Amino acid sequence: MSEVDSIRSEVAAYYSAKLATHGPTSQGVDWNGRASHDTRHRQFLRLLGDDRKVSVLDLGCGFGDFFRFLRAEGYQGPFIGYDVASNMIAEASRLHGEADCQWRVGAEPSEAADFAVASGIFNVKGDVPTEAWVRYVHDTIDILARAGRRGFAFNVLSLSSDPERRAADLHYADPSDMLSHCLRRHGRSVALLQDYGLYEFTLIVRRI
Questions:
Q1: Beta-sheet pairing, 56-59 with 113-118
Q2: What DSSP element (H or E) covers 57?
């Protein structure tokens, strides 16, 4: 098994267990609660803008909560959700159907949308060595970039957080390093958001 396949397998097992324990709740995708979950969702609206018909691809969609959020915000465009945990996809399909959305098991989308997002998928590294996890993060950002024709966005736990609050099994990134990486690799229209009250940041990359 390759390094990336091994990591994806561990990630799928981790989140499958969370869903089995907590059900389709914020805790079921390893967030603290609905308020912070929705705060994270809301940062991606900066990417999507005012056009309520844009198509969205969610990489690591879990049970499809971002789809719920978008519909509540008035976004009605096509939606595709991908996740490596098959039980997450099954739950997303059960909750939301497939009338105006699609759900896929996998980590590398075969199609693209106007915009692609990923929330929380870079946080839980478990016992994966940091160097291997960083390679995985950068490779996955490239996948996300290919999936968003007009742009993409993702969030990461921040090294700007208090050291005593960090956990050994979680991955924290330097905001300036990640900003520089995206500027070098994905163009100059990049925004760094770290002002929304959580110990993380969101990066938004647009193609203009």
A1: parallel
A2: strand 56-59
**Phi and psi torsions of 153, nearest 5°:** -155, 155
Q: Cα separation of 173 and 134, whole Å?
A: 9
- For 87-199, where are the E strands, in sequence order? 101-105, 113-118, 148-158, 172-173, 190-193
The two most distant CA atoms of the chain are separated, in Å, by 46
Which structural domains are found in the chain, ordered by start?
Answer: 3-206 (3.40.50.150)
Q: Is the separation of the CB atoms in 114 and 56 below 8 Å?
A: yes
The DSSP secondary-structure symbol of 53 reads: T
Separation between Cα atoms, residue 19 and residue 23, nearest integer Å: 5
Question: Please, what are the averages of pLDDT over each run of 10 residues along the chain (208 residues)?
Answer: 91 90 87 86 96 97 97 97 97 94 97 97 94 96 98 96 85 96 94 94 93
